[in-house]
Amino acid sequence: MLSGKRIILGVTGGIAAYKAAILLRAFQKSGADVRVTMTPSATQFVGVETFSALSKHDVAVNIFPENRPTSESWTQHISWGEWADLFVIAPCTANTLAKIAHGISDNMLTATVLAARCPLLLCPTMDGEMYQSPAVQQNLKEVQRHENHLLEPTEGYLASGLEGKGRLPETDDILQKSNSIISKSRTNGPLAGKKVLVTAGPTREHIDPVRFISNPSSGKMGTAMAEAALQMGADVTLIHGPVNIPLPEGIDTVEIESAEELFKQVKDHADADVVIMAAAVSDFRPASYNSQKTKKEDAEFSLGLTQTTDILGWLGRQDLPGQIRIGFAMETENLLENAKTKLNHKNADWIVANSLNGDQSGFESDKNTVHLLGTETEQTFSGTKQDVGREVLEKIFNSQ
């Protein structure tokens, strides 16, 4: 369940802070993208550079850090709060616990807690006598009253030299709890209970057994859309052409090769609540197929072509009640004009348009810049394909 998820890892000033580096790596091995925020006290136990190197993101500590423009820092808690699927604070000291219980936001970590729109998991860690104190017990009740999640500390040998309840839970226990929270949050997503069909990657139209017409589509954008739909609670089927990228866990996949095979599979799954046609489908196929390899000396100097089935157009003509159809348009010129024409002619609800001419877009790129067009909407999204896929679907289904 953590694959493709965005997790903020909060680290506070306790001796168990060093274990947070191990937890970060465990989240990453589970497929999550992790950003770290630390309290100033936490940096006395583990350096910022450690978490920055491991996470490959800047670490957020101060609301107004030195040597950084204010415009780039003071709203970071807002952007991170919107970005995350889960916020885990491990370890969470008694001091930070008290601040969260009473809405105090005097550093980047506590400010981000208030701004977060995702579930919050607290792993309180402190000496046993501190944990059992009436004030801490009251604060634990208070944070749970606000529907936050709590993973109680374990018993054992503590940094003070005493034995008691206050140790940070094992990494596997934190992962299991995080999985459980994410799983429950999916059932409340905007696509919960919906069947979503996504197509991705190229098609191949064979001339003979060893030659074909195709395109450089990597399938990254379509796969990102499938992941985003899964995270929003949908039951997802991904129909994909020949691709060399990892496919998301938790998604039913069907591999095809030609446009005709894709059309057959789309027809079989045409009852989906949402169809996302992100595949780069060949518009033409050879007029004839040679069952044997064509020799050079026997080859014609021209190749006859015929059009393949317009799958998005076919879906539009079926016009199933309540179905939402999202098409893709890739152009080299007149991007918006051509995309708007496609939106109308295909009877689609939305078109996601991007240009091959952009520096941050294209078939093989991990990033993309797209224009989302609806009957009354036009908006641009830029970033990684995972970010763009999620933002596009959030825009569409938050507007329903």
From TrEMBL:
Residues 5-177 form the Flavoprotein domain. GO terms for biological process: coenzyme A biosynthetic process; pantothenate catabolic process. Its cofactor is Mg(2+); FMN. It catalyses: (R)-4'-phosphopantothenate + L-cysteine + CTP = N-[(R)-4-phosphopantothenoyl]-L-cysteine + CMP + diphosphate + H(+); N-[(R)-4-phosphopantothenoyl]-L-cysteine + H(+) = (R)-4'-phosphopantetheine + CO2. The keyword Aminoacyl-tRNA synthetase does not apply. Residues 191-397 form the DNA/pantothenate metabolism flavoprotein C-terminal domain. This is Coenzyme A biosynthesis bifunctional protein CoaBC. The gene is coaBC.
